[in-house]
Amino acid sequence: MRDVKWEAVMEAAEWRCQCTGHCGRSHRAGLGRCQRETYSGMVSGLQVAPGDLVDAGGLVALCDSCHGDLARSARARRAQAELEAQDDLFGPGLLAG
Q: Among residues 80, 87, 14, which one has the least CA distance to residue 46?
C-alpha cells in the first residue's frame, strides 16, 4: 500500500519526474523536464524527495538518477558552506594541513 502523501505528489507530477535540469542535465528530449515516468500501481522508479533539492520547497517527484545527482550536489554545497564557516571562525587556511 502506498503512502497517501506519495500518491498525492505523484498525481500532482502526473507520474513523471519533476526535475527541470537542477540535476545538471538539460532534459532537452523532454522539453526541459526529465522524461522518466511511472504509473499508478506499478513498481516505481520515482521517489518523493524534499523540494529544497530543487529550490521549490515541499515535496517533489524525482527519478533515481536526478535525485542522486541533486543529493550529491546538495552534500557538496553543505560541505563547502561548512568549510567557509570554519574559515570565518578561525581565519582562512588555519585548518588546512
A: 14
DSSP 1: -
* CA distances to 16, 54, 83 from 63, in Å: 8, 13, 30
- Please name the residue that has the C-alpha cell 535540469: 21
Cell of 61: 517527484
Give 10-residue mean pLDDT values along the chain (97 residues). 76 90 89 81 64 66 90 89 78 57
pTM here? 0.67
Task: Provide CB contacts within 8 A for 57, sequence distance 6+.
Answer: 51
Q: In terms of residues, how long is the chain?
A: 97
d(Cα 6, Cα 95) in Å, to the nearest integer?
43
Residues 6 or more apart in contact with residue 41 via CB below 8 angstroms: none
